[in-house]
Amino acid sequence: MQSKGGLPPDPGSPFNIKAESLTLRNFDRDEIAELYAQHTDDTGQPFTDDAVDRAWFWTRGQPFLVNALAYHLTRRDPVPAPTPITGDDIDRAKEALVLAVTAPSRPPPLRGAGPPGSDSPAVHSTPTAEPAMTPAIAVALGSTLALSGTACATRSGSVAAAPADRA
Asked: Residue 22: left if φ>0, alpha if ψ -120 to 50, beta else—which one?
């Protein structure tokens, strides 16, 4: 079959190529420790055992979330090196990630909507109660975030599924 002008039909974009798919399984707790130890080796800043346990608890080893927690604590809202990163820091990072994705968007304040005679912005009320966060919600959060397919693996190259009975 030939298309108009005697040329073969357009097979599609040369950039739409799929040679092989790679499925990343979840890290187990030891692989999270190994991944976080890479940061310690590079910077001298350790992740405590409690930090690794909390990362495991919240993410169950989901690679994007494991890396997002560490990225938050080393780049977005860094714990100053060489201060160790603790379980409380991991919990703080989890809250920041959840709020970044689940916080309701509010309209910008309107000028002149404050008290009469002022040009101050209006005050918007926000709910004070925060929803409870469980590991199941953290996993659901991982599936709602844009998982770009970026591979995350430990230096040894192993990525194993986390056993369901690990807590």
From this structure: beta
